[in-house]
Structure formats: C-alpha cells, structure tokens
Design goal:
heterodimer; A: 248 residues; alpha/beta; Rossmann fold; seven-stranded mixed β-sheet; 10 helices; 9 strands; 38% helix; globular; B: 364 residues; 2 domains; five-stranded mixed β-sheet; 12 helices; binds thiamine diphosphate
Chain lengths: 248, 364
C-alpha cells in the first residue's frame, strides 16, 4: 500500500533541536515538501539565519549557506547573481529581518531581487532567551519588557509585509500562520507561490509566517497557538499584501 | 576599455586596480561610495556590464561585504572596495569570510582617521588590516602596492592567492596611490593550476550537498577547525612573503616602509647617497605575512633601523618583533593626512647617523 503521508525526501531524519511546540519545525517541513513537489532539490540553495534556525541545514538536505545576523538577503543576492537559474531562499527570524537586517530586506526587495524570503515571526528573540523583538505586541511581556511592551519607551510592532508591499520592487508578499491544519495548508500554498514567483523569474517574494515560541511566551504549545489566533493576528492580519498575478 | 598585452595606459591607482580585477576574472563587484576610492566603483559600473558581470551599488558596506560572501560561496570571483570608515563596517563580514574559508578581494584605499577623519592619504589602518580586524583568530593576506603598476599586478595576484588559500585578501593602498596617475601595462597571467571549487554552492546535483558556514557549536569542533586555519596561515607565512630589498648590504641604517611611505623613502635613499650616508631599505609588499625573517637578518648587521609610516606607529611593532632586540628601531611618522617629506625623513636619518654605537635595546 502507498503511504499517503511520509517524510519529504528533502527533510533529514534526525532529532530536532527545537523546543516542544516551536513553529520552526513545521515551517521547515513545509519547505521540504514544496522542494520535493516542485522537484527543485538539486537546484535550491538555502540561507540559514542567526537565530533559533541557525541549524536549519541540519534538517534540509540541500546546498545551504550561513549568513551573519540580519544579512541573509545580502548573501542570497550574492549567490543569486552567480547562479540566476538556481532557486535561492532565505529563512529569517523577526530580529534578523526586522531589526538588525531591516536595511538589507528593504533594499533587496527594492532591487526586485529574484529570491524568496521565509520570514518566521515569533514576536521574540528566541535564541537569546526571549528579549523584545521589533514585532513584539504592545503590552507583551518579554525578558527586556518585563512590564509589557510600552509604545512610549519601546515603539510599536513593525508590520513588515505592509512595509514591503509598498515597495515597487516586491512581487509577492503574504502573511500566514501555522495554528491549524487549515492555516498550515494555506501557509504551504503561499510559500509555494513564493518559490513559483522566483522560478518564473518574476522577482522578490516574501512569506511571513506567524509562529510560536511557547518557552519564551511562557505558555503551553496549545495556548501559544491560541495566542496567535486571538492576539497576534489583530496586529498582524493574515492575507496577501501583494500579488503579481492580481496586480497584472 | 580594451586591454591587450604591452599596451600602456595612463590610469589612476583606483582605475588600474579595478581593471586588473576585471582581467583577473572578477565578475561580481559590490560597493558603496566613499572618497578616495570612488573611481574603482565608477570603473566597475562601466566595465562589469561589458564583460557580463554584476555591479551593484549597495545600501551599505555591510551589505556589500555580505554580497561578496554570497558570491564567493557560490564559487564566483568577487571583490569589494572602500576606504577606512567603510572598511571598519566590513570587518564582521571579513571575519565570517575567513571563518567560512571563502576567497575574495577587498581593497582599502586608506584615508585619515579615527572617526570620519579626512580624505587625505594615511596608513593608520595597518593594525586593523594585519592583526585580524574583526573578531576571532584569523588573518587576511594583506598586499601593499607602492605604484599604480604594482597595484594592478597585486590585485591580479590577489585573486589567485584568495582562491589558492580560500581566504580573503586585502589590498592596502591609500588616497595617494588611489588617485595618482601613472603608466601601467596589464601583462599578468592567471594561474592555471588552481583546484576546482568543489565546496561551492551550486545546487546539489549529482553530488552530496555543500554547506558553507563558520558555526561550530559542538564542543571541541571549533578548536579543531581553528587549528586547521592556523596550519594554513603557517603555510602562507612560509610560501607567500614578498618584499623589496634595496642597498641593505653595506648600510648603516635601514629604513622599513611600505606603500606611499616607501615611495617617498626611495627619494630619501637617493638624497642620502649624495651625502655619503649608507642607507638601505626593506619594503614589505606583503604586510601579512610580514617579512620578519629578512628584517631580523638585516638587523644583525646594521647600526639601527628606521620605520617610516603615515601613522603614529603601527607597523613598527612588527618590525621590532622581527628585529627582536638586535638593533635599535626608530620611528618617523606623520598622521591625519600628513605626508612625510623626503627632507623630514633625511633630517631624521642625519640625526640617527650621529648616534654611532649600537645599543641593543629598542628605542625610538
Ligand atoms: C551581530 C550579532 N548581534 C547579536 C547576535 C546575537 N543573536 C543571536 S540570535 C539573536 C536573535 C534572534 O532572534 P530572531 O531573529 O527573532 O530569531 P529566533 O531566534 O526568534 O528564531 C541575536 C540577537 C549575533 N549572533 N550577532
């Protein structure tokens, strides 16, 4: 009998270093499934960020490159210019993409660089023990906002999809989440569209995925999923912000 | 610009460096404007499209060095250029390049510092260039041209050296070298025996996947890797030291100077000869690896050495380590865009030549 659900070929069978209930593993699996389905395992080059996903190359069986904190879009640009026919994607956290790497992501989008960015927004700095991120919600408690994020002192959550979608060079920008099978399927559809945007040489694509960090949110995995649905999506509404197919 | 062998061009050091990079097969250039090296970028913006290469004026020096990182990881010949403040910004990336063993070329046409400083010639980034510059135990190979022709030749060689040792190579020039014009010919030949870049990221077709990284989180792994790096550096030190030695045989005093300072000292040697002073010079061409052996050997037979720099005294530390107490090592330097005149240096030499006895401790 053919198994209907099996490990994607691109996903490496190895123990995970992610915490229980962390969303990174789900997003990794989606990427692996998409690479298999598009049959691009032998031409894809991935960028691992500095952040909890620094070891992404332990799970994805493709050529991969490390990038310094915030710099994956620049490194991806350098790779893509050498191999314009390969599929190049960067995988980045919210600190990486929306704080230290803000300049790189804006200008990479603005150049219309033909790469795909998977942006995992868990509203905290996971790897360094849960400090405030640029995407931390107002009043959300983190290691460095013990009383909750105060807009007067700490500023407001940064909405990257909205910012990037007004840049002329961007082609496909969407925000998704992983809180239910339905949302996971939707996230997969969007990420796949990002890869297709690149394969068809249409330019810059970015898919934000609202994801969990139960350990630094001080919640159970189930409470974390609910927190995304009930709280995070109020600040970060799901949807497609830019789509070359519709805009054309 | 079409370049054939033996044809002479009148170019600035910046233009000659850029053209040499093109002829060496560099096809990926990333830069951010800064004086006094803007002519490198300008030249690249014209030439890269002509040779089917990539030129990007990037949003910052940080992005530039990480685009270099990406193109190097993908197997391309790649370069960035800047001047002192911009080179400071690139240091994290240079550390990553060294830690990931990626080949690339970085040109620093130095200007006065610290801070925004000025745009005049200076040699005050020596420490940063030869001692690592960024974090961690690493070295870049550092080449110091002192003429436009040599800038072209060394840029050309830099790409082969980078590939040969899978290591970043820095060209350490300055505002004067970058902006002065001299005749230059491009007659260098590329090495043909370099091994294929089997480690490069190309998509894992028909081979096991490649990973380019500098992260070694498992205890002990990083020390093993660093030991391997150090072994490579010892090999570079054994194989790649370059210097020019002038009239050191019967010299009483030997000058040690590089780049623009060495050009000026060449004139000093002529003037000194007219005054019957026996002066020689050692001009390091590689600043790392440093020509310690020859400096140590010459130190045994001279009264003293004089290090001349456009800094408050940086290379002098390496000269003293090389001399290891065998003769006194003196210093003459100007900073902040000041360029030592031949007369100033000659006066210093006349002053030193009146001190006859050889004292064994180092003084300045
Ligand atoms: C230049 C630099 N600054 C700081 C760090 C430390 N650092 C490592 S990961 C990280 C934050 C990562 O957070 P995020 O990008 O949100 O990813 P997550 O870990 O939450 O997945 C920081 C600040 C670093 N490695 N390099």
């Amino acid at each position: 009998m053919e198994p209907t659900y099996k490990k994607p070929e691109t996903l490496i069978d190895t123990p995970t270093h992610y915490c229980p209930g962390c969303g990174h593993g789900i997003v990794h699996r989606l990427i692996a499934e998409i690479i298999d389905e598009l049959d691009i395992k032998e031409k894809t080059i991935g960028l691992a960020p500095v952040g909890c996903a620094v070891l992404a190359y332990n799970y994805l069986d493709i050529d991969m490159c490390e990038a310094a904190h915030g710099r994956p879009p620049a490194v991806a640009t350098g790779i893509k210019r050498v191999h314009p026919d390969n599929v190049v994607f960067s995988y980045q956290g919210d600190g990486d993409l929306a704080a230290i790497g803000t300049a790189e992501i804006i200008h990479t989008a603005n150049r219309g660089e033909n790469i795909t960015v998977i942006f995992v927004n868990n509203a905290v700095y996971g790897m360094t023990n849960g400090q405030m991120a640029p995407t931390t919600l107002l009043n959300q408690r983190t290691l460095t906002t013990p009383q909750g994020r105060d807009p007067i002192a700490d500023g407001y959550p940064l909405r990257m999809c909205e910012i990037l979608s007004i840049i002329d060079g961007s082609r496909f920008i969407a925000r998704t989440s992983i809180t239910s099978p339905k949302n996971i399927n939707k996230a997969k559809e969007m990420i796949k569209k990002g890869f297709q945007t690149q394969i068809e040489k249409r330019g810059f694509s970015l898919i934000e995925v609202l994801s969990t960090c139960p350990v630094y949110w001080h919640m159970t995995p189930c409470e974390s999923m609910k927190y995304i649905d009930d709280q995070m999506t109020k600040t970060f509404p799901l949807g497609i912000f830019k789509d070359w197919e519709i805009d054309n | 610009m079409s370049t054939n062998k033996d044809q002479k061009f009148l170019l600035t050091g910046n233009e000659a460096s850029a053209e040499a990079a093109i002829l060496a097969g560099c096809r990926y250039y990333y830069g951010y404007p800064i004086t006094p090296q803007n002519e490198i970028m300008t030249h690249m913006s014209i030439r890269m499209p002509q040779v089917g290469g990539t030129f990007i004026q990037v949003e910052s020096e940080l992005a530039a060095i990480y685009m270099v990182y990406g193109s190097a990881a993908a197997g391309g010949r790649t370069m960035t250029s800047s001047s002192s403040p911009g080179i400071s910004l690139k240091q994290e990336g240079i550390s990553y390049l060294a830690g990931s063993e990626l080949p690339c070329v970085i040109i620093n046409m130095q200007r006065g510092g610290p801070g925004l400083g000025d745009i005049s010639p200076a040699q005050s980034d020596y420490f940063q260039a030869v001692k690592g510059g960024g974090h961690g135990d690493y070295h870049t190979i550092v080449l110091a041209p002192s003429s436009v022709q040599e800038a072209a030749d060394l840029v050309f060689d830099a790409f082969d050296l980078a590939d040969c040792y899978t290591n970043p190579v820095m060209i350490l020039g300055d505002a004067q070298l970058g902006q002065m014009m001299e005749p230059v010919i491009f007659d260098k030949k590329q090495k043909t025996d370099l091994s294929a870049k089997t480690w490069a990221l190309t998509g894992a077709r028909g081979r096991k996947r490649n990973i380019v990284k500098s992260f070694y989180p498992v205890k002990g792994e990083l020390e093993v890797f660093n030991t391997k790096l150090q072994k490579k550096y010892r090999e570079v030190e054994a194989e790649e030291v370059r210097y020019e030695e002038i009239d050191t045989q019967n010299a009483d005093i030997v000058i040690v100077a590089y780049g623009t300072s060495a050009r000026i000292c060449r004139e000093v040697l002529r003037d000194a000869k007219k005054k019957n002073l026996k002066i020689g010079m050692i001009r390091p061409i590689t600043l790392w690896p440093f020509p310690s052996v020859i400096i140590g050997r010459v130190a045994e037979r001279v009264q003293s050495m004089l290090t001349v720099e456009m800094s408050a005294g940086q290379m002098i530390e390496d000269v003293r380590l090389s001399v290891n107490g065998k003769c006194p090592v003196h210093f003459y330097g100007r900073t902040g865009g000041g360029i030592p005149s031949p007369k100033e240096i000659l006066n210093k030499i006349i002053e030193l030549s009146t001190i006859k006895e050889k004292v064994t401790c180092a003084t300045s």
